[in-house]
C-alpha cells in the first residue's frame, strides 16, 4: 500500500497515566499527586473497567474520555484527529492501524501511560 495521505487514520483515546509515565501531570492532576501514586496495574484496572462500560453500552467513549482521560484531548472527547505513520508512539500507531473503524483496542502501553483507542476513521 502506498503511504499517501489516504493512509492516515483517525482515532480517539482514553489515557490513564501512572507512576511510570513520562510526564506525571495532566489537566486533571496538574501537581501529579494522583498519577505518582497510581501503579500501572491500578491504571490498567481502571481502564479495563472503563472499557467494559463502553463495550457493554453503559457509557459512551466520548463522555468517559472527557471525564477520565489524562490527555488534553479529553476536552474533545478523546479525539486526536487524523494522523499517519510515525506520528505517534509505535505501540499506539500499531494498535490504531490494526483496528477497524468503530473498534476499540485492548489496553495499549506507551511511555505516556495506558490507553484504550477507538478508531474513528
How would you sum up this structure, described in words?
The structure is a single chain. The model is unreliable at 1-5 (pLDDT under 50). The two termini are 17 Å apart. The longest helix is centred in the middle third of the chain and has 16 residues, at 40-55. The radius of gyration is 14 Å and the shape is globular. The chain has helices at 33-36, 40-55, 61-68, 90-98, and strands spanning 9-16, 79-83, 108-110, 113-119. A 4-stranded antiparallel beta sheet has the order 2-1-4-3, with helices on both faces. It has 4 helices and 4 strands, in the order E-H-H-H-E-H-E-E. The chain is an alpha+beta fold. It catalyses: [protein]-peptidylproline (omega=180) = [protein]-peptidylproline (omega=0). It holds the Pfam family Rotamase. Prolyl cis/trans isomerase with specificity for phospho-Ser-Pro bonds.
Helix-strand category: alpha+beta
The proportion of residues forming helix, as a percent range, comes to 25-40%
Major β-sheet, in short?
4 strands, antiparallel
Overall number of strands = 4
Low-confidence stretches: 1-5
SSE succession:
EHHHEHEE
C-alpha-based Rg, rounded: 14 Å
The backbone outline, from C-alpha atoms, is globular
Strand order of the largest sheet: 2-1-4-3
Question: What fraction of residues sit in β-strands?
Answer: 15-25%
- CA(first)-CA(last) distance: 17 Å
Q: How many helices in DSSP terms?
A: 4
Amino acid at each position: 500500500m502506498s503511504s499517501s495521505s489516504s493512509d492516515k487514520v483517525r482515532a480517539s483515546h482514553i489515557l490513564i497515566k501512572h507512576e511510570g509515565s513520562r510526564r506525571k501531570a495532566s489537566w486533571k492532576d496538574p501537581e501529579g499527586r494522583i498519577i505518582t501514586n497510581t501503579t500501572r496495574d491500578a491504571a490498567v484496572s481502571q481502564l479495563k473497567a472503563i472499557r467494559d462500560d463502553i463495550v457493554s453500552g453503559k457509557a459512551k467513549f466520548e463522555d468517559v474520555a472527557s471525564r477520565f482521560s489524562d490527555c488534553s484531548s479529553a476536552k474533545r472527547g478523546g479525539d486526536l484527529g487524523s494522523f499517519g505513520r510515525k506520528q505517534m508512539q509505535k505501540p499506539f500507531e500499531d494498535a490504531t492501524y490494526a483496528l477497524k473503524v468503530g473498534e476499540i483496542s485492548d489496553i495499549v502501553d506507551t511511555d505516556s501511560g495506558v490507553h484504550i483507542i477507538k478508531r474513528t476513521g
